[in-house]
Design a protein that fits this description.
This protein is an alpha+beta fold and 232 residues long. It is 39% helix and 13% strand. It is built from eight helices and seven strands; from the N terminus they run αββββαβααααββαα. A hairpin with a 4-residue loop joins β3 and β4. 40% of the residues are buried.
């Protein structure tokens, strides 16, 4: 197949294959999209196709109106959610949705993930937020688009670049990043944060939140203007 979006589709394929490799999904659960902001299109996993059968030509290219631009298969049923987020979150180049076990457990509990320790603070400076439950009229409408709107509502006073992850109440996690690879990285980090938080709460149901001074120190040494973690 001749493709005018070959590189974008290959990036989307590589990122999608990381989902089962990292233990974030079974069967056909989950999806990743890669976004080309210049062209205003995204490449996303096709709906219901097992990861082991995916090829670059299977990735579906969609514009920000949700129209298929290139591809012979139906795009993921979550595509409208991805479209809503790309349309609103500037600087985001990749989005991941999974039903990874621990993050989904917190989502099903309708609970944000508390910032108990420095592993969490290394990646974001607050709790992992959880959306409100979707209203019945929204469920009956354009459900996947309304899922995106749920996330936007949750981020009215949050920066998506500083908090690149969210739990959708009763549903599961979404993460994003400057590209699809970083979005997958954030999905892996979220699952580990969720697992650690559950274990912490199991050991001590009254475990205290990490002090704000330690949170700021750990977050800013990686992400602040004077960050010094890693190599320049």
């Amino acid at each position: 197949m001749t493709s005018t979006h070959r590189e974008l589709r290959e990036r989307a394929l590589a990122a999608n294959l990381e989902i089962p490799r990292r233990g974030l999904a079974i069967y056909t659960f989950g999806n990743v999209s890669a976004f080309d902001a210049q062209k205003g299109v995204l490449a996303i996993k096709p709906s219901g196709v097992p990861y082991e059968r995916l090829a670059a030509d299977d990735m579906v290219v969609v514009d920000l109106d949700g129209k298929v631009v290139e591809g012979r298969l139906r795009p993921s049923s979550d595509t409208p959610t991805h479209v809503v987020l790309y349309s609103s979150f500037r600087g985001v180049g990749g989005i991941v949705h999974t039903h990874s076990t621990y993050a989904t457990a917190w989502a099903q509990a309708r609970a944000p993930i508390p910032i108990y320790g420095t592993t969490h603070a290394d990646h974001l400076a607050g709790d992992v937020p959880c959306t409100e439950e979707m209203r019945e009229e929204a469920v009956a409408g354009d459900y996947e688009r309304e899922t995106g709107n749920q996330i936007l509502e949750c981020f009215r006073e949050r920066s998506p670049l500083h908090t690149p992850m969210v739990l959708v109440a009763g549903h599961g996690p979404f993460t994003w990043g400057e590209d699809a690879d970083k979005a997958v990285y954030n999905a892996v980090v979220l699952e580990e944060i969720a697992r650690m938080a559950l274990l912490t709460r199991t050991i001590d149901p009254a475990a205290a939140r990490l002090p704000e001074s330690v949170i700021r120190k750990h977050f800013e040494r990686k992400h602040g203007k004077d960050a010094y973690y890693g190599q320049k």
